[in-house]
Amino acid sequence: MAAKHGSTTELHYREAVGRHFEHFAVGDVYNHQPGRTISETDNTWFTLLTMNAHPLHFDVAYASNSEFGRPLVNSCLTLSMVVGMSVRDLSQNAVANLGWDKIKLTAPVFVGDTIYASSKVLATRESRSRPNQGIVTVLTTGRKADGTEFMHFERAFLVPKHEKG
What we know:
Elements: E1 29-37, H1 40-49, H2 60-64, H3 75-91, E2 96-105, E3 114-126, E4 133-144, E5 149-160
Antiparallel strand pairs: 1-3, 2-5, 3-4, 4-5
């Protein structure tokens, strides 16, 4: 007997994650899990790794004199985490990311904040140049545990159509 789709043998299954083009419908909302509590180490390592030398991200004395009174989490880190949270639901099967647009940072994020993400499908269309693939556009929103939105952006990615047969 032939193995079932997503299995390695008749009774052994491989985890199936991600979606294909046909699985997306305009208006669908995906609440991405799990959330993530941001640590000081996360913020410091990311800031140093990306060579962002702004002391507002890692100098407590400097940041204490800012309007925030403490260091801010690097916004590129929060963007990366929010995108990462969405991968299993949205783009695990993606052929390519096509772009991020309209990125808005709407509230500060601090060490110790727990963040969550959700995405709403804005548009789907078949690829004109790749008949076995389609383009999905979503609005992804990042929120703190208290419900405060801290970021939102649009993202487009190319995903394959589901295999026939």
